[in-house]
Design goal:
This protein folds into two domains: 117 residues, Phosphorylase Kinase, domain 1; 220 residues, Aminoglycoside 3'-phosphotransferase, Chain: A, domain 2 (Alpha-Beta Complex), CATH 3.90.1200. The longest helix is centred in the last third of the chain and has 21 residues. The protein is of the alpha+beta class. The chain starts with 10 loop residues before the first helix and ends in a 10-residue tail after the last helix. It contains 13 helices and ten strands. Helix 11 runs antiparallel to helix 12. Helix content is 42%, strand content 14%. The strands form three sheets. The protein has a five-stranded antiparallel β-sheet. The protein has a three-stranded antiparallel β-sheet with strand order 6-8-9. Strands 7-10 form a two-stranded antiparallel ribbon.
Length: 359
């Protein structure tokens, strides 16, 4: 898609009537924003800013006055601007063709020189939506509902030619291990953040080895789907009716279904709930996957793939440094327990390995 409006370099530029008129004018020709009322701003690596607009002659039909901007504007964010590229391209080029609940974008684009992706969406918080952070209990029933969304995402894009030929959707597993690894994992495992990780999973070098082995298995498969790529519940919102929506698409990529599913189940549920409900949840997901256009995998793929998804999520949280430690601790405990229960390191490193005993 040809770029028609320059991607803003700063939040201050974005929140001007002039820039917003041009940006929103791509979808709503003739719009003229007359006033902007800034709201709360959360700035970590990315910057999320809520705001409200007025328009001359009133708002165009279908446009909410309550909007939210996401970009990489702060001093830290500028160092990671390319992290927003895939998410902006997802909202710009793909979202309209995928039957899932996610944020409604009113503008999304990428600066071709810097890779800086900026997205404007409707502000669902004013409509009662709740953003999750992962410390609250997420029930098996809620997990089943979010897995339905993953099934719709995966099934509707199963071996999709558009997903298959998009270079920016190439698998990104290997690149996740290029900047952080054993040092960061060991630091988390040996500190209070890793206190809940069971001994059977508390091996930074083995986690790194298993994580880097995942592509050997995934590349042997003849199918792929679009993945969220970071399937913890902090990347969900619950709308006013309590329905889950998938959000935060920075790690969107092409890959096998189980990288989302194994990760999601193991990180969303308490250890006890996962042990009781995991098998049923997987079966419910697979039924929905087939309904949405996917194919049921073999039993062997289910067994190995779920272990790959668990290890994938465990690695991503093992290298995490910039999130509230209380959140990271919960995720590491849950994912570490799943690694231990499934003997997932051994399965990923030797797909013929079958854990003995029960859980």
């Amino acid at each position: 898609m040809e770029q028609t409006v320059s991607v803003p370099d700063s939040l201050e530029e974005l929140l001007t009537p002039e820039w917003l008129s041009a940006a929103l004018g791509v979808r709503y020709p003739g719009i003229k924003v007359s006033a902007v009322r800034p709201g709360p701003v959360i700035s970590r690596v990315s910057t999320n800013a809520r705001f409200e607009i007025d328009c001359e002659g009133g708002l165009p039909e279908g446009l909410s006055p309550n909007l939210c901007a996401k970009g990489y504007f702060g001093e830290t964010g500028r160092q990671y601007r390319s992290a927003g590229t895939s998410e902006a391209l997802f909202y710009r080029d793909l979202v309209g063709s995928i039957p899932i609940r996610t944020l409604r974008s009113v503008y999304a684009d990428v600066d071709p020189a810097t890779g800086h992706g900026v997205v404007l969406t409707e502000d669902v918080a004013v409509e009662g939506a709740v953003f999750l952070d992962g410390r609250e209990r997420y029930s098996p029933e809620q997990t089943a509902a979010s897995l339905e969304q993953y099934a719709a995402l995966h099934g509707s894009t199963w071996n999709s030619p558009a997903v298959g030929r998009a270079e920016w959707l190439g698998p990104r597993i290997a690149s996740s291990a290029t900047t952080r690894g054993v040092k960061e994992i060991r630091g988390n495992f040996e500190g209070p953040i890793g206190a809940g990780v069971p001994d059977a999973a508390r091996d930074a070098a083995r986690l790194m080895e298993a994580f880097t082995a995942i592509p050997r298995y995934t590349e042997s498969l003849d199918h792929w789907s679009l993945l969220l790529g970071d399937a913890h519940i902090g990347n969900l919102i619950l709308d006013a009716e309590g329905r889950p929506w998938l959000v935060d698409w920075q790690l969107v990529q092409r890959g096998p279904w189980f990288l989302d599913v194994g990760y999601h189940i193991a990180s969303a549920l308490t250890v006890e709930d996962r042990r009781r409900h995991e098998q049923d949840l997987v079966e419910q997901y697979l039924a929905r996957l087939v309904e949405a256009g996917g194919e049921r995998p073999s039993d062997e793929e289910i067994r190995i793939g779920l272990c790959c998804g668990i290890v994938y999520g465990f690695f991503l949280w093992g290298i995490t440094l910039k999130v509230d430690p209380a959140i990271t601790a919960v995720r590491l405990e849950r994912l570490g327990a799943a690694v231990a229960d499934h003997d997932a390191f051994s399965v990923v490193l030797d797909p013929e390995h079958r854990p003995g005993g029960g859980r």
